[in-house]
Amino acid sequence: MKKISLENHQEIIHYLSKGRSIRQTAKKTSVGHSTVGRIYKKTPNIPKNSKNGRPVKANHSTSKVLVRQFKKYELRNASQGSKYLKAYYNIDVVPQTVRNMLYKGGLKAFKKPKKPIISEKNRKKRLKWAQEHKNWTPKDWKRVVWSDETRINRFGSDSDLYGWRNPQNKLTKQDVRETSKADGSRLMVWSCITWDGVGYICDIGDHNMVKEDYLDILKSDLLNSLNYYNLDNNRTIFMQDNNPKHKAKLVMDWLNQQQFEVMDWPPQSPDLNPIENMWAKLKKMLKKSYSQPAKNKDELFKRVGECWYKIDAIECQKYIESMPRRVKQVLDARGLWTRY
């Protein structure tokens, strides 16, 4: 580190003694901020001024009360917090000040995740299911074949997309998200995952699948997936959710005739199904792998297959191994939502 001259050192002390800030002194003397700061700390006869800026309107005690109101969900946003301080403490602050107070109090803003509605009846069913499976080890979960359907959009996610543009300029191709009402703008797919890898994926189309369609899928794609990995049907457990077509008598009669066991699944529990994570991975792969939307539904399904079959067994195992943690979170939440 280059030493400064005695003249520079005295000049820095002079400005600091006159009440100049570290930044102002550094600018006046052409010396780095860190060097001026060290001299400021080490020189005892320089008055240590308190921090500059507007005085704090709300004291520590009031801030604690405000934070407590948010923790109790009595207040939900910064605007409500601002009105609360004005009404009860006659403290007039803007919402940003409330946000700063909440941040200092240990709270952080977050985007509320979308979760299914869990009624009291379903909460008890989820809790009961978790209690029944709390002692299952990863070895037990290895036996489960996880299935589900998902929708794939030709033009990307249904969620909002954001960007930056000059509002005075005309919209360009980069400024919009193109959509189409033509047939083939989306499709539904079904598949399953096992400990050994992903199962066969099939195109349901863009219509609502009925029980007969679902039974055909089980007879073909499910059984083909089990055979592909040479799974022992006597030890295999098949998981499906409680969609009405899954629980139709026609379907359940066929499932009950199979050698594999069918898992009793709790309602409103996509957070407990590892294949949901695989669907998310598939959609990220599609977005990353192709810069332009598919020309039609056939091309879209071809892309889906190319990405799906690239997912290896290690990826499947990573999410299946998380099942003990998911079960524990259901128990801790007394049947309510997990973080998954």
From TrEMBL:
<protein>
    <recommendedName>
        <fullName>Transposase</fullName>
    </recommendedName>
</protein>
<dbReference type="InterPro" id="IPR038717">
    <property type="entry name" value="Tc1-like_DDE_dom"/>
</dbReference>
<dbReference type="GO" id="GO:0003677">
    <property type="term" value="F:DNA binding"/>
</dbReference>
<dbReference type="Pfam" id="PF13358">
    <property type="entry name" value="DDE_3"/>
</dbReference>
<dbReference type="InterPro" id="IPR009057">
    <property type="entry name" value="Homeodomain-like_sf"/>
</dbReference>
<dbReference type="InterPro" id="IPR036397">
    <property type="entry name" value="RNaseH_sf"/>
</dbReference>
<dbReference type="InterPro" id="IPR002492">
    <property type="entry name" value="Transposase_Tc1-like"/>
</dbReference>
<feature type="domain" description="Tc1-like transposase DDE">
    <location>
        <begin position="144"/>
        <end position="297"/>
    </location>
</feature>
<dbReference type="InterPro" id="IPR052338">
    <property type="entry name" value="Transposase_5"/>
</dbReference>
<feature type="domain" description="Transposase Tc1-like">
    <location>
        <begin position="88"/>
        <end position="135"/>
    </location>
</feature>
<dbReference type="Pfam" id="PF01498">
    <property type="entry name" value="HTH_Tnp_Tc3_2"/>
</dbReference>
<dbReference type="GO" id="GO:0006313">
    <property type="term" value="P:DNA transposition"/>
</dbReference>
<dbReference type="GO" id="GO:0015074">
    <property type="term" value="P:DNA integration"/>
</dbReference>
